[in-house]
Amino acid sequence: MKAQGFEKGIRGAVNGLQLDVNNMMADIVGPDYGITMEMIKAVGTRISLAHRKIEEMRKSGGLCFTDLPYQEKGLDDIINTAARISDEYENFVLLGIGGSALGPIAIHSALQPDYYNMLPAERRGNRPKFFFLDNIDPARTGMLLELLDDNLKGTFFNVVTKSGGTAETLANFLIFRDKLRQRLGTGKLSDHFIVTTDPESGTLREIALEENYPILPIPKGVGGRFSVFTPVGLFPSAVTGIDIHSLLAGARHMDELCRIDDIWENPAYLKGVLDYIAHVSMGKTIQVMMPYSHRLRDLADWYRQLWAESLGKRYNLEGEEVWAGTTPVSAIGATDQHSQLQLYLEGPNDKVITFIAVKQYPELIKIPEDFHEKKGISYLGGHTLNELFDAERMATQFALMKAGRMTSTITLNEISSYTLGGLLYFFEMETAFAGFLYGINPFDQPGVEEGKRATYDMMGRPGFEGKKDEVKRMIECGKPQYIINALTMRS
Ligand code: PA5
């Protein structure tokens, strides 16, 4: 099957998105360090099975994230509601965690200018300031309460939780709801909340119905980390004026490419299979995502969750114990050249590093020519920051290659809602495909349930009794000799 918008690349010539895996391949980096065609052939059956699984699931409606780029229903509602919120409020706050926060955060930092909240309103297109609360650290919630205190009337909250029952999100919701109720009165609550949640069930949905908050439904069958193209990601994006049609168009275009059954023409499959082989045949247990773009730093965090929660599985689909997955690490160029790179070059050869490069920036910043007599600085003058950024990425990749480390590069021609949509979808498909190569279910997260149950019991939630005592036993059986108390305040 052929799809439009695909062509074999020339390094450096990018029109959209380019995946370059040269530095993963044995014929480029040498047989001791790269993947051979024989290794790829050896997993041919797995590749076919994984592709078949994906196609079957698509047909049966069981791979819901693949339908999202084609959605039409509900988009107008998202855009119209977002436009109203954007006109009426000065602050927009997203309360959510995990897959209910990382996607919109990644989109926001990729597509909105740096220091967004500090810019004058006109520079933000007169859109609201944007705040995310995806933690329950009392200091952070407390600071946001303080920050919003003198303008609660001008603040709107989007509470996002697929299950409708996540403790962290509900706790923050209760805190801000209480504050609003005290300040503005119960009757005004529905003017300040919108809830993004399951279309049929959940505690938050019940509350929303009781208190008359509008509800944006997350389609059934779409799990948190695959929900970036649902109202979870689309609504907050639309509030700040991001073109969500174009975001979806990029995802659609990528989906067309991702239907091809030939790994050499399907970027998500190619990356998935190489990362899989690098792990199972070459011992690369760590996946580093290193964008050379500050705006894509949160995308690396989004990917970290997608990869970790989807692939880190104890059992395969046959119920056998497999302990699958590799550890995703997010880094950022050029900053982490001065933090992580030494380890990547000379530490254990257990990593695959994925660079994300951006070809065109709207900004071209010249480095002034100065200090002509000082060789240590004068060489920079006359170049641009853009050139320096690119040179550092290429030099880093070169050094890694010389050290026998595997790298691949994804280059975006520019960061736009279209290319970002394609990139997000690319990673979703790569992850799902890799999951099926491992033979696991990439869409559940059974491991995290134990900790959730223990939290519920410690907080007194009925129906979860018993866990608190187990936690207490763990604390009590600790030995004093393994504990050091330090920095005890002297009187
Ligand atoms: O990917 C997932 O399913 C999880 O990370 C969830 O997004 C996270 O636990 C938050 O869940 P919820 O959206 O139900 O509040």
Explain the overall architecture.
It is a single chain. By secondary structure, the protein is an alpha/beta fold. 43% of the residues lie in helices and 11% in strands. Strand 7 (286-291), helix 12 (297-311) and strand 8 form a beta-alpha-beta unit. The model has no long low-confidence stretch (mean pLDDT 95). Bound molecules: 5-phosphoarabinonic acid.
Largest sheet, spatial ordering of strands: 1-10-9-7-8
SSE pattern? EHHHHEHEHEHEHEHHHEHEHEHHEHHH
Structure class: alpha/beta
- Mean residue pLDDT: 95
Radius of gyration: 24 Å
Question: Helical stretch count?
Answer: 18
Query: How many angstroms does the end-to-end distance come to?
Result: 77 Å
Largest sheet: 5 strands, mixed
**What is the number of domains?**
2
The CATH architecture name of the largest domain reads 3-Layer(aba) Sandwich
What's this entry about, in short?
It is built from 18 helices and ten strands.
List the topology elements:
Elements lengths: L16 E4 L5 H4 L7 H6 L1 H17 L14 H14 L2 E5 L6 H10 L17 E5 L4 H11 L6 E7 L5 H18 L8 E5 L5 H9 L3 E3 L13 H9 L4 H14 L9 H14 L5 E6 L5 H15 L15 E4 L10 H6 L4 E8 L16 H4 L6 H18 L3 E7 L4 H22 L10 H10 L8 H10 L15
Helix pairs in contact: 3-16, 4-9, 5-9, 5-12, 10-16, 11-16, 12-16, 17-18
Bound molecules: 5-phosphoarabinonic acid.
5-phosphoarabinonic acid (PA5) binds next to loops.
What distinguishing features does this structure have?
alpha/beta, Rossmann fold, five-stranded parallel beta sheet, globular
